[in-house]
Write a structure and sequence with these properties.
The protein has two domains: 255 residues, Alpha-Beta Barrel (TIM Barrel); 53 residues, Alpha-Beta Plaits, CATH 3.30.70.20. 35% of the residues lie in helices and 19% in strands. The protein is built from twelve helices and 14 strands. The strands form four sheets. An eight-stranded parallel beta barrel has the order 3-4-5-6-7-8-9-10, surrounded by six helices. A two-stranded antiparallel ribbon has the order 1-2. Strands 11-14 form a two-stranded antiparallel sheet. Helix 1 crosses helix 2 and helix 9 runs antiparallel to helix 10. The protein is globular, with a radius of gyration of 19 Å. The two termini are 25 Å apart.
Length: 316
């Protein structure tokens, strides 16, 4: 497994980052013990970097894995929507307590949109920078679905790490194309910021072309790591093979193909109806103000996700 230093930080991470949203109550809802064993299995395969968030409600799942993993050998990044000193303090305290650790490697502000949101959350940023000085966090940064946030982050030395959406079709990017996103990500990389991408498989919609999709991000020279969701040993094996060899062995493909996929619609759906208007198969509807999948009609084509402004539709 390739190990890279995250920009100008002293943090070294594996080329694959374990995306833990998929094991959380928001998606697969695995038990603590099952999730802990999966994370441990990934670690043994060389995945020494994990991404979580306060929103995911899975700190205790990761805590279970830490029973088997030397904390100093494992990089943990978490995220929150903190906007003030008090909310930042509470978020950091919650992460430390529920993970049962005395430091967080990387703390990000979740889903930042632009310099305006940086300024609106700056009291929280100041708190996290102070926490870094005290050794409670090692680095600070942002996650984002928007090109504008990556562009604006170039003005801020405080933002050391950027976690943007990057996949071959640009699924989930809310304000432009994948080419434009990559142009600013490269600038951030050249400035010494640590970059780890998210959604290489477009929230599950690129699974049918997973090798091509994964090779696209793996071959980008300005990505230190790639966060990908995994909820089974087969998925861990497949992703490790893709990042190390560029292809998935046939026997692993056959096991993965037996898995039943489903369309997952996150509870932050705003019921805008874009997905309904896009779907040509009658596979989705609005019910009680939220999008609802019609399983018998859904063909997992992924077209609905392209037009979801909140990127809340995924295949799991």
């Amino acid at each position: 497994m390739e190990i890279n230093k995250l920009g100008n930080t002293n943090i070294e991470v594996s080329k694959i980052c374990y995306g833990s949203l998929t094991i959380s109550p928001l998606q697969a809802n695995l038990g603590y013990e099952e999730a802990g064993k999966l994370i441990k299995y990934g670690f043994e395969k060389g995945i020494k970097f994990i991404d979580t968030a306060e929103l995911y409600d899975n700190y205790k799942h990761i805590k279970e894995a830490l029973k088997y993993i030397n904390r100093k050998d494992f990089v943990i990044v978490t995220k929150s929507y903190s906007y003030s000193k008090e909310t930042a303090k509470n978020s950091l305290r919650k992460a430390l307590k529920e993970l049962d650790t005395d430091y967080i490697d990387i703390f990000l502000l979740h889903e930042q949109e632009s310099e305006l949101t940086f300024k609106g959350h700056y009291e929280a940023i100041e708190y996290f920078i102070e926490a870094k000085k005290r050794g409670i966090i090692r680095a600070f940064g942002i996650s984002t679905h928007r090109i504008e946030a990556v562009k604006d982050s170039l003005k801020y030395d405080e933002i050391e790490i950027i976690h943007p959406i990057i996949n071959k079709l640009g699924l989930g990017i809310q304000d432009g194309s994948i080419d434009k996103m990559l142009s600013y990500v490269k600038k951030a990389y050249d400035m010494g910021k640590g970059i780890y991408g998210m959604k290489p498989l477009g929230g599950g919609h690129l699974i049918k072309s997973s090798e091509e999709a994964f090779n696209f991000v793996n071959n980008l020279p300005f990505l230190h790591s790639i966060a990908v969701g995994m909820q089974s040993m087969e998925e861990i094996d497949a992703n490790v093979e893709m990042v190390t060899t560029g292809k998935i062995p046939i026997e692993i493909k056959e096991r993965l193909n037996k898995k039943t996929r489903k369309l997952h619609i996150s509870d932050w759906c705003i019921g805008c109806g874009n997905c309904v208007n896009t779907c040509k198969h009658g596979g989705i509807k609005i019910e009680n103000g939220k999008a609802v999948c019609i399983p018998e009609n859904c063909v997992f084509c992924g077209y609905c996700a392209k037009n979801c402004p909140e990127f809340c539709i995924k295949v799991i």
